[in-house]
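Hello,

Our lab assistant flagged a job as stuck in the queue for most of the afternoon. It eventually completed. Since we weren't sure the result was trustworthy after the delay, we are filing this so someone can double-check. Below is the sequence as submitted and the structure that was eventually returned. Let us know if re-running is recommended.
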Amino acid sequence: EAGSIALFSSKDNALIKQLTPDSEPVNCVTFNPRATAQFYCALGEKIFGYDQRNVNEPCETYSFHEEEINQVSVGEKGQYLVSCDDDGTVICLDLTRPGGKCVSKHTTHENICSSVQWVPGRSSEIVSGGMDCKIHHR
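-- returned structure --
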């Protein structure tokens, strides 16, 4: 709730660093499967991108959503990031483009989209689930 991210050592569970990029609650954290030092955090309507080798401040900040982001997920090739929010919008960003170019934006759910994931083995397909009791496959 305090908008902080805690990084712990995998060796001894010691706290390495506490990050506070914003005052919004942290809703989701995900890693880039191709660049394991990179991770992304959703806070409010923003996504912050970090590199574990230098976590003093975010490497990138993405502001494409108008409502609170519920989940972010990076595709298995590490090129695309999808996110979903409280108004039912799913956004796909190209992480290889400067500023994370928005390559698609769809409001497919009637209200809150609570989850979005890439389909394993199908790098261009996503599945989203919402509070409207619907699952969409794109």
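-- support follow-up --
The delay was a queue issue, not a problem with the job. The result is valid. The chain has a mean pLDDT of 92. The first strand starts at residue 5 and ends at 8.
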